[in-house]
Every structure is written in structure tokens, then in C-alpha cells.
Amino acid sequence: MEDWRAAVEADLDRLLGSDGDDPGRLREAMRYAVLGGGKRLRPIMTFAACVAAGGDWPAARPAAAAVELLHAYTLVHDDLPAMDNDLVRRGKPTVHVAFGHAEAILVGDALLTAAFGALAPLGPRAGDAVAVLARRAGVAELLGGQARDISGAKPDSLEALERLHAGKTGALFAAAAELGAVCAGADEELRGRLARFGMAYGIAFQHVDDRDDGDHPALAAGAGQRIVELGAEMDRLLAPLGEQAAALRALAQRLR
Amino acid sequence: MEDWRAAVEADLDRLLGSDGDDPGRLREAMRYAVLGGGKRLRPIMTFAACVAAGGDWPAARPAAAAVELLHAYTLVHDDLPAMDNDLVRRGKPTVHVAFGHAEAILVGDALLTAAFGALAPLGPRAGDAVAVLARRAGVAELLGGQARDISGAKPDSLEALERLHAGKTGALFAAAAELGAVCAGADEELRGRLARFGMAYGIAFQHVDDRDDGDHPALAAGAGQRIVELGAEMDRLLAPLGEQAAALRALAQRLR
Fold it and tell me: Could you tell me the pTM of the whole model?
């Protein structure tokens, strides 16, 4: 996985090239938001899914960069004063604090635009890839989840909590996994299987995060049970893929 | 052109379908921002460029919808309190006034996401189309222009004014025209020619707009001269295309 991480770092650095003039320091702020931090879990999911689907991992490089750029945009816009008004991320001032409020809106817009642009080199597979990313990152999933989150209503059931997790976290992991499959030239069945894996991973990831942070204590017992169930579901989804799915299995193992 | 306008209205209505639940009223706000208003100049440019490049206009429907969705996103984010803080657009409260500040950020994000998603049905041409739209709408052009604009420095020369116009208005018209060419399967030379036409149109459009609004009076004489020069440039760019370029010529004629 270190090779994958290095590949995506190099691709992000290249895509966020600092040549050209830089009105409003947008380019500088994009690099600040994306480079030098982050576990790159979503790109790693994309590479692992590509391999699980029988592809060569470098075929997934455009998609891996795209999901990380998209993730970075969600963080920049989430942190805005009108949203969560977060002042610090990964130990550094957030983009709107460091570069200005209007600039941070534009930086998020630019990262989202760059995310789709990163898919263009997929050539004949670009149409499918764009469709996957737009659907998962759009109003039906990711942005609908954000809208639900800012409404401020606390989820009052495990179902409501998982709906929130599915939108805010699951959607992008599902996209990451399905994009890996698209880059491998997988058929519909396999694309759907890996997308469901990504969704289960994302929801479990968020339950584990809640557990570690002590969030939603009233729902913690049910969520703990769901971590086990989602782990079993991930195992089941990967079972037919054999050794090719070893990297995805390793990702899932860490969420126990 | 009425057929083209009707086609893009129908496509926008379909793409912004109101089925599914609507947390935060994002879907409702997207429809509010896009439907029932607007001259649809950018989609018309896309259709006209497709025909000028020898294509059948319906081939450009995905791209026409994409440029209008992208235009709508720029308006929603431009109007935000941290940007221009506009309260009224086309005689109606702006999205952040009608739906809330955080919601308006998400609505713009959702429209930008939907713009790229709209290109997916282009299939083998989707990759080229995504590359064109991401480059023109990204930090190098449109968003760089926005960043320059919010810096608040008044352009002190005709060159500085045109750089602003090129980013804020020219970039998206250039994308609209080049996307029409991409949908027609045009070669590099013709794509470039139509992109230059779109850029000249966008800059002239903004000079005419300034003239009508009395903006930038100190630069008005030079800008008036530039409207004439850009008109001649547009004529020259279209000359080799003959009758196929009639609709583009009609668009250019209106900017005298």
C-alpha cells in the first residue's frame, strides 16, 4: 500500500501544479488543503478495488486522485463558517482561516472541479467514472447527507444514524471502490458488489470513529453490534474474489 | 433556436428531478436556481457550435445542459454573503436568502457536481468533454477570474479588464463552444477555432454589458473599440465554416 500512497501523492502534486499566476492564492490554498497530510484511505480503497476486480492498480490512478480531491473539497466546504465553522484541521488552521472565507469557497469549488477533471484520462471509461462520482457525490447521497447533517437534528435511531453515515462517509467510499472496479473494466455485478463493500466499509468506519470519540452514546451498543455485522457483510461480499481481494480484506480487518 | 431552448429546458427539468427525499430542501433549491428564467445563452452557444462543426444538434444535449448547470452554480456561489452578497437575482430572492446560507453552499456544490454528471452520457466523448469543462471552469480560468474579482482591485487598464472578462465570462463561453465541437466529433483545429470564437464572444458580451450598465467609464472608449475588433475576429474565425456557422454568426451579430 506504500506504493499506492506514493503514487497518489505524486499525482496530486502534479495535478495541483503551482505554475501559472495565482490570483487570490487559490493554487497555494489548494495545495495547502490537499498535500502533506491525510491517510489517503479513499485512493487506497480505489487501488485495492481495482486489484480485487482483476485490474492492474496503475489503471486506477486517475480515479484514485479524483476521490482524494473530492474528499478534500468536502472538508474545505464543511469547515466554512456557515457550515461547521471549524478553525483547525490536522493541527493547522483551516483553509478559510488561513486564506479567507471567499477564497475557501472558491478553493472547494476548484478542488471539486479538479476531481472531475482528474477522471478525463480514463478515456473510454471516463463516462462511466464520471457517472459514478457524480451520483455518489451529488444530492442523492453525499450532499443530501451534508444537508441532513446541518439540519442539526440528532439521529434518534440506529437507522437514522446509519443514513447519516451512508451519505457523509459511505457514499464516497462506495464511489472509491466502484471507481476501482470501473478502471479494471469490471462488469455490472462486480461493480455493484464492490460498491456495496465500499458503502459497508464507510458506515463501519464512521461507527468506529464514533466509538473512539464517544459520539452518539445512546446508540453505542447497537452501533457496536453493527460493526460486527458490517464486518461479516464485507467478508461475504469479498468471498468469491479470492486472493485478489487481499488488500480490501486488510482494510476491512482494521475496522474491528 | 427555440427548439434548442426547449430541449435544454426539458433536459434541465429531467436532470433536476424532484423525486426522492429532500433533506435541507436541496433539490427544491436547485430547481429554484436553474429553472424558470435565464436566456440559456451558453447552451445555445453549445448547440450552435455543434452545428457549425458539422454535427447534429441533439448530439450536444448533454453538454448544453452541463454548461447551464455550471453557469447556475457560479451564480449561486457568487451571490453568497462572503462573495458579492447579492440578495436579489432575476427579480427573486437569491438562493441563500430563500433557502439559507449553508444550503446555498451545498446547492452550488450540487449544481457543479450535476454539471459534470450531465456529461457522462457522451460515452466515448465524455473524457474529452470533462477535460474541456474542468480546465475552463477551474483555477486557471473561471475560478482564477473569480478570485481576481473578489480581490476588489479595480482593473486599471483595458488589458486588466479583459483578463477579468476572460476569466469570469469568456472561459465558460469558450467551454460551451468547444464542447459543441467535441460533441460533433471535430478535430483539434476546429475545436480550437470554436473555443477562440466562444472566448471572443464572452469578452465582447461583457464589454457590451459594461457599456449598457455604465461600468468602468474610464475604459469605455477603448472597450467600445474592442467590441468592434472582437466582432471582426469572430467573423474571421467563422469564415471558413460557411453556412453551417449561421447560428453562431447570428449570436455574434447581437453584440454590436
Answer: 0.97
